[in-house]
């Protein structure tokens, strides 16, 4: 039997989305890498799978796989695409749905203008929750790397993030320092590494070297992480526009213990069938 899929993107962070509500989709890591391959497969940063709800208070389970076959507990741009997908495929008629990932419950709201607003949950800062090997929570962590002291903020948005402040995003060492910091032993599950430039109190610029996918055109959870860290460092207010290479997201955060809200677009590109995927 063929496996149908929908190709979608959120600001150029692209996805293969699969409906597993009626028939299970149980891919191996090799299957996932093949789907994500931009030459031998469909090509994407992440594969998103919609599954039947595993608890009464949610609408769907939402599984997230990176292009390298690893699984994550969070994908913000994917969450917006999932809301669009569920509506377009008539899996739900509701404007607001609750989905459960490996690590979080997210509330997705389809807005009248076609954008999607996501309650991403509250950021977690305790090192054990990120997870990160550190003796105590810090607003700024310092880490010796390649003979220099690197300063960054760290938190979990349901997945681990480190955020580095830079003066000039265009020349930031995203593809060299990103993978170096990502794979340090202080991050036992690795981390998504964001490079953030402050434009003004309402605006950030951001590039993210993602775990399992490399640098992407946008990272929704990374945008939330950057906005939270910038607010903790008193560099922005409670609502910020985060400008990513693929476009902008609106992020709102009321402070410690409160959820982060992310608003942005979700686009469908095409649908197809995986001819080789038989289950
Ligand atoms: N692109 C995503 C994040 C996807 C998962 C991430 N690479 C991880 O491994 O945690 C987003 O929009 O949040």
What does this structure look like?
The structure is a single chain. With 279 residues, the protein is α+β, with helices and mostly antiparallel strands. It has two domains: 128 residues, Roll (Diaminopimelate Epimerase, Chain A, domain 1); 132 residues, Roll (Diaminopimelate Epimerase, Chain A, domain 1). Helix content is 15%, strand content 40%. It has four helices and 18 strands. It has an 18-stranded mixed β-sheet that branches. The longest helix is centred in the first third of the chain and has 13 residues. The chain is globular. It starts with a strand and ends in a 5-residue tail after the last strand. The mean pLDDT is 97. The structure holds ligand LBFN2T5F. Homodimer. GO terms for molecular function: diaminopimelate epimerase activity. InterPro entries: DAP_epimerase_AS, DAP_epimerase_DapF. It comes from Banduia mediterranea. Pathway: Amino-acid biosynthesis; L-lysine biosynthesis via DAP pathway; DL-2,6-diaminopimelate from LL-2,6-diaminopimelate: step 1/1.
Write the layout of secondary structure elements.
Layout: E1 3-10, E2 13-19, H1 29-36, E3 46-52, E4 60-66, E5 71-72, H2 76-88, E6 96-100, E7 105-110, E8 116-119, E9 141-145, E10 148-156, E11 160-165, H3 174-182, E12 192-200, E13 203-210, E14 214-216, H4 220-232, E15 239-244, E16 247-253, E17 260-264, E18 267-274
Parallel strand pairs: 2-3, 4-6, 11-12, 13-15
Antiparallel strand pairs: 1-2, 1-18, 3-4, 4-5, 6-7, 7-8, 8-17, 9-10, 10-11, 12-13, 13-14, 15-16, 16-17
This protein binds ligand LBFN2T5F.
């Amino acid at each position: 039997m063929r496996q149908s899929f929908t190709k979608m993107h959120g600001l150029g962070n692209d996805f293969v989305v699969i409906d597993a509500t009626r028939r299970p989709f149980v891919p191996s890591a090799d299957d996932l890498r093949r789907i994500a391959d931009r030459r031998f497969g469909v090509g994407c940063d992440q594969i998103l799978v919609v599954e039947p709800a595993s608890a009464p208070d949610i609408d769907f389970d939402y599984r997230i796989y990176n292009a390298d076959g690893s699984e994550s507990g969070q994908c913000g741009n994917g969450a917006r695409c999932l809301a669009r997908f569920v509506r377009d495929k008539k899996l739900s008629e509701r404007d607001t749905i609750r989905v459960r990932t490996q690590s979080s419950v997210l509330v997705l709201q389809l807005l009248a203008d076609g954008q999607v607003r996501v309650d991403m949950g509250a950021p977690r800062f305790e090192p054990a929750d990120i997870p990160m090997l550190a003796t105590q929570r810090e607003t700024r962590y310092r880490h010796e790397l390649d003979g220099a002291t690197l300063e960054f903020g760290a938190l979990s948005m349901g997945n681990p993030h480190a955020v580095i402040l830079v003066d000039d995003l265009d020349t930031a060492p995203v593809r060299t320092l990103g993978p170096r910091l990502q794979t340090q032993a202080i991050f036992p599950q690795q981390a998504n590494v964001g490079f953030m430039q402050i434009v003004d109190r309402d605006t950030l610029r951001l590039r993210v070297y993602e775990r399992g996918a490399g640098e992407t055109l946008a990272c929704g959870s990374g945008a939330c992480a950057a906005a939270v860290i910038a607010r903790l460092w008193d560099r922005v207010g409670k609502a910020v526009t985060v400008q990513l290479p693929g476009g902008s997201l609106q992020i709102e955060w009321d402070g410690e213990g409160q959820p982060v809200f992310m608003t942005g677009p979700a686009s469908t590109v095409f649908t197809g069938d995986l001819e080789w995927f038989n289950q």
